[in-house]
Amino acid sequence: MALEHLFQGSALNAVDGKGRVSVPAFLRSVIERRGDAKSIVLAKHESFPCLSAYDPAYAALKHSKLERLLEKEETSPDAQLEYQQRNLMAFAATEEVPYDSSGRIVLPPMMRRKGGLEDLALFLGTGETFQIWNPTLFLEDDRIPEDMKDIARYRLEERGLGA
């Protein structure tokens, strides 16, 4: 699968009391150009306190990448265990969520907790995937460059919220 369509851009959307949030149109258009599914796959991000999200077709690509990694590291005694652990994280700890005609999804409670998502969701395109952050956690994370934090502050200001 070629990834000529990449996730890029940012948006801040409200999450209602039932966990419903709209996936921005610029992200949905990439999902729909990559395949037929009108759904996204959610997973806890490996490094950050947010969710990683992608289209269902990307899951197959992710599996191929893990297979290639195992082939490269086959001689390592820990390679098989690491491969199994990565597969668990990549596939067992995910949930596929459909979106409706307006792009709205219901965040599963486990994913909402893993991403620390409350009343706002900051969507950030990261190329092959996109991230969904609680904007407060994003602004508090020391690993995030200030230029990126400025994007979050701008999105909050757009909504009349101070950062």
Descriptive overview:
By secondary structure, the protein is an alpha+beta fold. Helix content is 40%, strand content 22%. The strands form 2 sheets. It has a 6-stranded antiparallel beta sheet. A two-stranded antiparallel ribbon has the order 2-6. α2 (56-72) packs antiparallel against α3 (79-92). It is globular, with a radius of gyration of 17 Å.
Structure described in brief:
With about 160 residues, the protein is of the alpha+beta class. It has helices spanning about 25-35, 55-70, 80-90, 110-115, 135-140, 145-160; strands at about 10-15, 20, 40-45, 50-55, 95-100, 105, 120-125, 130-135.
Rg value: 17 Å
SSE run: EEHEEHHEEHEEHH
| Gross geometry | globular
Strand order of the largest sheet: 1-7-8-4-3-5
C-alpha termini separation: 40 Å
Biggest sheet details: 6 strands, antiparallel
Q: Helix share of residues?
A: 40-55%
- Would you report the number of β strands? 8
The low-confidence parts are none
Strand content: 15-25%
List keywords for this structure.
two-stranded antiparallel sheet; 6-stranded antiparallel β-sheet
Write the layout of secondary structure elements.
Blueprint (H helix, E strand, L loop, with lengths): L9 E5 L5 E3 L2 H10 L4 E6 L6 E4 L1 H17 L6 H14 L1 E5 L5 E3 L2 H6 L5 E6 L4 E4 L1 H6 L5 H13 L5
Antiparallel strand pairs: 1-7, 2-6, 3-4, 3-5, 4-8, 7-8
